[in-house]
């Protein structure tokens, strides 16, 4: 069994490549970013092509190491903010790359299974409480719209052309090697010696935080199991909502020393107040969320201090 | 006021260009297909660029005749059958071209209004009775999926970047110069002297038939009126359902002579049994459907006989 990971050089991608390789899988990757030989060997990545997800690169990867049995498709836009500044770029990275991938699979590897990373952003800003997979998608940002369009395309190819596809809507993924967003920004400021942090928003925003180590285990488990339905969608969230204020509190305590956190009350337009998964479908899988939030955050702080020493 | 028509060389496009020009508008176009000078003048098309909907062609068109006040976007895939044979081609023509258009408008002509042709195919095959615009989209074919993705992208740009956009979901458009589908096929066979026609399906399939002359009037009216909402969706159907058997009967009577029609009973997979608009929203516009079906079909038969003489 050969696994391909698109976007293998990203935050989730690197963690996923390593886990699959640790499980003894042959892992090949394609996406943006140079990975030199030493790094490639360290990641246990059998092959890496630095480039666009397009027919010529996909065929080149197949020539090097054979057709894939499963593709874990993580490539795509990765920032709500950037998608607002450069919407066509985000469209192109998320929707266009998926269109080229699906067409190549249809023509060249129709028995290959697909695990596709989508986002809770497709639900938008109008839900409170836990959101089941059947909820009507109401994305707000271009990023969310493009992820929803990507899902639509996956559904079209699965139903119309029989490609076995699982879409995983990831919630708030955090962990070592994530060098952006709330936790990263807070650590940077604490490291600079700030002791009175003022954060945006109200602090009451609720998210479904999941540790990267659990997330890649979920993706790997999905990739390795037999799938009945041609097309399925699964929430990649644990179902527990935690406010930004609680997260900030856990993080400052993990950091050590005295620090206070206040909130500006200025809410980013379109920022959802609550994004929490109905986690029933994922709990029915052979999979368990293992890393509790305090431990995950403590590990993140530890990694940050090591990483920036 | 300068109007641009993308896909201006297609069945709807050519009819729309002529109507807008007859109303005294300056009409410029972009899309696939060579239009020579004599034809361009006859269509009263001020400018025509034969090529992709992309930034360079859009900018070239603007250099020739100024920025558009309204773009009527008709370019895109035009066949359910072809979308099944070549899904990436259909994606590229429908979704990709719209992405490039919206991005160009956002950057270069943000005050330009957009009238975008979508399709009843986005509703899919699971409805009976009249379908309101709020019905959940459940497309079946790649063509329908891609049109829905296109709508999604329009919504994203309208809500996120303020582009004034009206999406019109066209139902079963027929009329002079349509050289494919049921009416064309039947006329061809009657012209060859067949008098016992066997058609696919059951004959009970219901469609909302609208004459091209009414359809382009609807599109032109929408383009010329002030629009309140940033983004709106309107069914381009009259709200009356007519079965294929009834249409076939009207057509054979219009043709003259004796001919019988039978149905094979073999239904194309995914072919919706019923696609009829809830026409309330369009009836609330300053617009009236004027051409009754028997007259429209009789005119089509007349055109066919002239055209193929």
Describe the structure.
The structure is a homodimer of 309-residue chains. By secondary structure, chain A is α/β, with parallel strands linked by helices. The first copy, chain A, folds into 2 domains: 201 residues, Rossmann fold (3-Layer(aba) Sandwich), CATH 3.40.50.720; 80 residues, UDP-galactose 4-epimerase, domain 1 (Alpha-Beta Complex). Chain A contains 11 helices and 15 strands. In chain A, strands 3-2-1-4-5-7-12 form a 7-stranded parallel beta sheet, sandwiched between helices. In chain A, helix 1 links the parallel strand 1 and strand 2. In chain A, helix 7 packs parallel to helix 9 and helix 7 packs across helix 11. The longest helix of chain A is centred in the N-terminal third of the chain and has 22 residues. Chain A is globular and about 55 Å long. The relative contact order of chain A is 0.14. Chains A, B: This is UDP-glucose 4-epimerase.
List the helices and strands and how they pair.
Two copies of one chain form a homodimer.
Chain A lengths: L1 E5 L4 H12 L3 E6 L5 H7 L3 E4 L4 H11 L4 E4 L6 H6 L1 H22 L4 E7 L10 E2 L10 H20 L3 E6 L1 E3 L6 H11 L4 E4 L6 E2 L1 E3 H13 L6 E6 L5 E2 H12 L4 E4 L10 E4 L2 H4 L9 H15 L2
Parallel strand pairs in A: 1-2, 1-4, 2-3, 4-5, 5-7, 6-15, 7-12, 8-11, 9-14, 10-15
Antiparallel strand pairs in A: 10-13
Protein name (chains A, B): UDP-glucose 4-epimerase
Organism (chains A, B): Bradyrhizobium valentinum
Pfam families (chains A, B): Epimerase
């Amino acid at each position: 069994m050969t696994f391909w990971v698109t976007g293998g050089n990203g935050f989730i991608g690197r963690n996923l490549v390593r886990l699959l390789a640790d499980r003894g899988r042959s892992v090949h990757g394609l996406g943006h970013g140079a990975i030199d030989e030493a790094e490639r060997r360290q990641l246990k990545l059998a092959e890496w092509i630095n480039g666009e997800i397009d027919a010529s690169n996909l065929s080149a990867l197949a020539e090097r190491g054979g057709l894939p049995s499963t593709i874990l498709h993580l490539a795509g836009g990765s920032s709500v903010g950037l998608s607002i500044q450069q919407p066509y770029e985000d469209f192109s990275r998320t929707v266009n790359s998926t269109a080229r991938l699906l067409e190549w699979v249809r023509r060249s590897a129709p028995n290959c299974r697909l695990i596709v990373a989508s986002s809770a952003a497709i639900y938008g800003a109008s839900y409170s409480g836990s959101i089941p997979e059947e909820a009507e998608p109401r994305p707000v940002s271009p990023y969310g719209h493009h992820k929803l369009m990507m899902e639509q395309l996956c559904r079209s190819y699965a139903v119309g052309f029989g490609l076995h596809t699982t879409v995983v809507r990831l919630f708030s993924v955090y962990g070592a090697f994530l060098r952006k967003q709330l936790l990263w920004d807070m650590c940077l400021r604490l490291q600079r010696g700030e002791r009175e942090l003022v954060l945006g928003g109200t602090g009451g925003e609720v998210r479904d935080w999941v540790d990267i180590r659990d997330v890649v285990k979920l993706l790997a488990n999905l990739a390795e199991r037999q799938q009945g339905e041609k097309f399925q969608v699964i929430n990649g969230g644990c179902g527990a909502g935690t406010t930004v204020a609680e997260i900030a509190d856990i993080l400052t305590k993990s950091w050590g020393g005295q620090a206070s956190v206040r909130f500006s009350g200025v809410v980013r337009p379109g920022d959802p107040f609550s994004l929490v998964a109905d986690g029933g479908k994922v709990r029915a899988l052979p999979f368990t969320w293992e890393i509790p939030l305090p431990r995950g955050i403590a590990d993140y702080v530890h990694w940050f201090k090591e990483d920036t020493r």
